[in-house]
Structure to design on (231 residues):
């Protein structure tokens, strides 16, 4: 039965497991009951669905496919916005499976390519998640705290391509005496978000245009690119 699940969507997997609950699924020489796997999937789905719905994201089982990924790769976001979930994840604890699904969904089909920001969001829901992450979310978390923002607010602004708004909020907060200045804010913004391109401020007649940021949205495999300009 294990081979039959590879290539199917999670929607299809749920149907197969529900139709054959007495069957056994084999992985690395070990066998698991279809009924147990289905129960864990449904529990993980409930955790993920409730959280991402609050953020305005869609959780569609027909957009997540089961695949055999490379070693140590739990899931992958593809250029067309679909997600590949490694077959072995079906046998992980519910919390781990939910974290992996949530991580990929929080990339928002590539609109949020920054793994550290996504991991900070996951850690916001699963406090233990940050320790389990392959990326360092502390830098982004500290940036948000200095800016006086919640991680979710930072994620939403980034997701919408409102990079200049992030900069303005951060700059306003470090303008306090003995903390820093606008140049410091700009350098920190560029350091924490190196994936963004930056345009220096320019004089136009009697006005001065503020610094602008532009982000190139891409998934980790760089199978998709989508330019989002700051508002």
């Amino acid at each position: 039965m294990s081979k039959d699940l590879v290539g199917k969507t999670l929607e299809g997997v749920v149907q197969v497991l529900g139709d054959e609950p007495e069957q056994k699924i084999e992985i690395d020489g070990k066998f698991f009951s279809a009924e147990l796997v289905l129960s864990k999937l449904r529990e993980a789905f409930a955790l993920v669905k409730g959280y991402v719905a609050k953020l305005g994201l869609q959780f569609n089982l027909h957009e997540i496919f089961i695949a055999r990924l490379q070693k140590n790769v739990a899931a992958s976001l593809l250029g067309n916005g679909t997600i590949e979930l490694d077959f072995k994840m079906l046998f992980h604890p519910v919390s781990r499976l939910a974290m992996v699904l949530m991580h990929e969904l929080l990339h928002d089909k590539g609109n949020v390519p920054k793994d550290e920001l996504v991991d900070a969001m996951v850690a916001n829901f699963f406090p233990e998640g940050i320790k389990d992450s392959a990326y360092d979310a502390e830098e982004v978390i500290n940036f948000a705290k200095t800016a006086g923002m919640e991680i979710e607010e930072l994620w939403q602004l980034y997701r919408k391509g409102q990079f200049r708004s992030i900069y303005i909020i951060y700059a306003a907060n470090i303008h306090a005496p003995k903390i820093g200045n606008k140049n410091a804010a700009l350098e920190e913004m560029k350091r924490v978000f190196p994936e963004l391109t930056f345009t220096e401020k320019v004089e136009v007649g009697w006005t001065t245009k503020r610094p602008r940021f532009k982000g190139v949205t891409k998934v980790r495999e760089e199978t998709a690119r989508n330019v989002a300009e700051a508002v």
About this structure: Residues 34-54 form the longest helix (21 residues). The mean pLDDT is 80. The first strand starts at residue 24 and ends at 27. The beta strands are 24-27, 30-33, 64-67, 75-77, 83-86, 196-199, 202-204, 207-209, 212-218, 225-229.
